Amino acid sequence: MIRRLAHLWHHHRAATLAFGLIAALTLVLLIRAALFTLYWSDPAHRDPKLQGWMTPRYVAHAWQVPPEVVRAALGDAPLPGPRQSLDAIAQDRGVDPAALIAAIEASLDAHRAAGRSGP
Amino acid sequence: MTGTLADLVNQYGLSLILAATFLSCLAVPVPTSLIMISAGAFSAGDDLNLWACAAAALVGAVLGDQAGYALGRRFSGLLDRAGDRTARTIDRARAFTQRRGGPGVFLSRWLFSPLGPYVNYFAGGSGMAWAQFSVWSVLGEMVWVAVYVGAGYLFADQLEAVASILSNLSGAAVGLLLSAALGTWLWRHSARSN
C-alpha cells in the first residue's frame, strides 16, 4: 500500500493531488448535507419566518392555517389575486411591508393561541 | 437570495421555469434547482399549478438537451482536431458513448446533473444515435423535475433547508463519481508498477 502510494506520488503527483482534493471536498459536502438534515429535523429550527416575498396562500399553507386567518389580517380591502407577494400587496396599498407582516404575525399568533385553548 | 428568486418565480411563473431548465441544460449558470423548488412550494399553496410547473420544467429541459446535442453535432469536427494522445482518449470515449451512453445520459440528468450539459455536447459530437439520446434524456429529465419540483411541493415551508440539502447532495454525488473514476485509474497505474 505504502509502496503504491509512493509510486503514485512520484509518477502521477498531479492526479494523486487531484484525487485527494476531490475526495476531501466530497466528504465535506456529505458532512454538510448530514448536518443540515440534523439541524432542520429539530422542530425548534423549523418555524418559518414571514418574509416579503411570500404570498398569502403560501403563508396559509406553510403555517398550516386556514386561508381566512391570513385574509383577516389583510383587512377588508379587496382580496389580492394569486401570486401577489406581501411586498406587492403593501406597495399597492401604500403601507409599510413591515406593518403588514406584523399584522399577519399577530393574526397567526392569535389563531395558534385560540387553537391551544380550544377543545 | 431565496427570497428574490422566489419572488421572480412568482412573477414570471411558467416562462421563467421553462427558460431556467432550458439554459441550465446548456451549462449556462442559472439557479435552476432553487427555481424548481420554489415553483413546487408555490404550487403547494395554489399560487401556481403543480402539473403546469412540472410540464414547463420538463419541456425546457428536454429542449435544452436537444439544443446541446445539436450544437455538439454541429461542432463535432472540433473533436477530430485533437492531438494524438487526446484523440485516442476521445476515440475510446466515443466508442463507449455509442455502445453504452444511454444510462450515462439518464444518470447525468438528475443524479450527476452538473455534468448533464457536457454530456449533451459530447453525445452530439460523438455521434450517439439521436433516438437513443432522446429517450434517455426524457426519462432522466422526468426524474430530475420530479425530484426538485416534488421536494419543493412536499417541503414548501422548508424551502431553504431543502435547497441546501439537495445542493450539497448533488455536489457530493458528482464528487463521488469523479473520486471513483480517478481512484480506479490511479489504482490501476500503481498496480502495474508492482
Overview of the structural elements:
The complex is a heterodimer of chains A (119) and B (194). Chain A has 119 residues and is an all-alpha fold. Chain A is built from six helices and no strands. Chain A has helices spanning 2-11, 13-41, 56-62, 67-73, 86-93, 97-117. The longest helix of chain A has 29 residues, at 13-41. Chain A is elongated, with a radius of gyration of 26 Å. In chain A, 18% of the residues are buried. The model of chain A has no long low-confidence stretch (mean pLDDT 85). Chain B is mainly alpha-helical and 194 residues long. Chain B has one domain. Chain B has helices at residues 2-24, 32-44, 50-74, 77-80, 84-110, 116-125, 130-154, 159-193. In chain B, helix 1 (2-24) packs across helix 3 (50-74), helix 3 packs across helix 6 and helix 5 crosses helix 7 (130-154). Chain B is globular, with a radius of gyration of 19 Å. The A-B interface holds A 3-5, 7-8, 11-12, 15-16, 18-19, 22-23, 25-26, 29-30, 32-33, 36-37, 39-40, 46, 48, 51-55, 57-63, 82-83, 85, 87 and B 3-4, 6-7, 10-11, 13, 41-42, 44-48, 156-158, 161, 164-165, 168-169, 171-172, 175-176, 178-179, 182-183, 185-187, 189-191, 193-194.
